[in-house]
Design brief:
Structural class: alpha/beta
Number of strands: 16
Strand order of the largest sheet: 3-4-2-5-6-1-7
Bound molecules: adenosine monophosphate
Distance between the termini: 60 Å
Number of domains: 3
Number of helices: 20
CATH topology of the largest domain: Rossmann fold
Shape: elongated
Radius of gyration: 30 Å
Mean pLDDT: 85
Strand content: 5-15%
Low-confidence stretches: 208-214, 435-472
Helix content: 40-55%
């Protein structure tokens, strides 16, 4: 069942603003948490980054704070400054007419400036525990008017040793506030903290997908230093030759860029995103199912609307932040007893993320080398050999024999066969794959084959020059 933001209790103005941002329907955590938060319940949300949790806690707050009251009414605590900035930006993007005010407070930035901003008044503060405590101590930040408090990534707070700071802040907040904790995992310490500071909270959990099924082959390619990911992806696509692949990227922007680059290189690829109209989505889906489009690029969120899960390949162009998302992504291949292939592209710096994934899936990753031009060529020739074997056993072969007889009077039979193969090769391997642009080594058979010329042998018969010898 698809829920709408309206049915969750958000105002019409907010819903149309969200629509305009490409948020057409709530994510699972939003659908579950928003109604509770709007009704004033304390809440524990078990959800990872990438699930839409930021909007899940931000939207109810933003609907309820009093924009005409300049005191801090809502506080969101985050473990890192990056997350504080990210949450602050997300909240600002959900605003209507630039209200309420949202301020990020974190260490490493001039405290005087932050104090000045606080003096000017703000309804919402997003901050890291250390800086928030500091400003509370200086008396510039006051929690007297606080009605809402959110602890984001509570487990990270614990890992980073911030729990005591968090406790201090929580105990300074008024008792009649609404509190929500969001955490990917529920460590006993977090539960304890929740028991102490939350009042009969409701717990919402977004289901973690199950561990990876066995029939998925998981491969990782490390992008060589100095290479772009898109350069590394192309030989992989050539060797894998996916019938249908979903390529996951982190941001909408990468989705657009990658789609354009692959299209320019001649691939059959489209982007799937939230701004597509219903009919555009359906058309893309149909073309994808019929393999008219073989590659679709999407972010995790956009891909939720793409109801295809019988893919030959899933490609993690960017690894997801959450291990659960990885499992969820690759679960779209290898269904119904078929073997699927999950490919991850990682930079040398991202290798550590693989260990987390391996620990979670309890399956080792296979590392593969980016295929060289020679390997791609060899694979294409192998494919051609298989096709020739199949053609030899087909009934239609007989209708071509008269042409062979005619040509054999002019040319050696081996020459005729090689020419026919060259034509078939050129048809099965599209021109863009025969270019040098993504070569890691240069030994394409196309380039290697010198032109076949007629020439007289000593015996007077017409013989070909050797047509298959490489000439680099
Ligand atoms: P988060 O898990 O909060 O970090 O959100 C992950 C990404 O999903 C962010 O880029 C959000 O802008 C996006 N997002 C959140 N909710 C929705 C939604 N309902 N529809 C489309 N995108 C969303």
């Amino acid at each position: 069942m698809t829920l709408s933001f309206t049915s969750l209790g958000l105002s019409a103005a907010r819903v149309s603003h969200l629509e305009a941002m490409g948020y057409h329907e709530p994510t699972a955590i939003q659908a579950e948490a928003i109604p509770h938060l709007l009704s004033g319940r304390d809440l524990i949300g078990q959800a990872q980054t990438g699930t839409g949790k930021t909007a899940a806690f931000s939207l109810p707050l933003m609907e309820q704070v009093d924009n005409n009251n300049p005191t801090v009414q809502a506080l969101v605590l985050t473990p890192t400054r990056e997350l504080a900035i990210q949450v602050c930006q997300a909240m600002r993007s959900y605003r209507l007419q630039g209200r309420p005010k949202v301020l990020a407070l974190y260490g490493g930035q001039s405290i005087e400036r932050q104090q000045e901003q606080l003096r000017r008044g703000t309804q919402i503060v997003v901050g890291t525990p250390g800086r928030v405590l500091d400003l509370l101590g200086r008396g510039t930040l006051s929690l007297k008017g606080l009605g809402w408090l959110v602890l984001d990534e509570a487990d990270e707070m614990l890992n980073m040793g911030f729990i005591q700071d968090v406790e201090k802040i929580l105990s300074q907040a008024p008792g009649d506030r609404q509190t929500a904790f969001f955490s990917a995992t529920m460590a006993p310490e977090i539960r304890e903290l929740a028991t102490k500071f939350l009042q009969s909270p409701v717990t919402v959990t977004v289901q973690s997908p199950k561990a990876s099924p066995k029939q998925i082959q998981q491969m990782t390619y490390v992008v060589p230093r100095g290479w772009t990911k898109v350069r590394a992806l192309q030989p992989i696509l050539e060797i894998e030759d996916p019938e249908t692949a979903l390529i996951f990227v982190r941001t909408r922007r990468t989705a657009g860029d990658l789609t354009r680059q692959l299209q320019a290189a001649g691939y059959s690829v489209d982007e799937y995103h939230g701004d597509l109209s219903q009919s555009q989505r359906e058309r893309l889906l149909m073309r994808f199912r019929q393999q008219q489009v073989r590659l679709v690029v999407a972010t995790d969120i956009a891909a939720r609307g793409l109801h295809v899960d019988d893919l030959t390949h899933v490609i993690n162009y960017d690894l997801p932040d959450a291990v659960e998302s990885y499992v969820h992504r690759i679960g779209r291949t290898g269904r119904a007893g078929k073997t699927g292939v999950a490919i991850s592209l990682v930079t040398p710096l991202e290798k550590y993320k693989l260990r987390q994934i391996e620990r979670h899936t309890k399956q080792p990753m296979t590392f593969a080398k980016i295929p060289t031009r020679a390997e791609i060529a060899a694979r294409n020739l192998e494919k051609l050999r298989t096709q020739v074997r199949e053609a030899i056993t087909s009934e239609r072969l007989a209708s071509f024999l008269p042409i062979v007889s005619q040509l054999s009077e002019e040319y050696d039979l081996r020459t005729v066969a090689a020419a026919a193969l060259q034509m078939a090769y050129d048809q099965t391997v599209p021109a863009w794959q025969r270019h040098d642009q993504h070569a890691t080594e240069d030994s394409s058979p196309r380039k290697a084959a010198p032109p076949v010329k007629k020439r007289k042998s000593k015996s007077g018969k017409t013989e070909p020059r050797e047509a298959t010898k490489a000439q680099d």
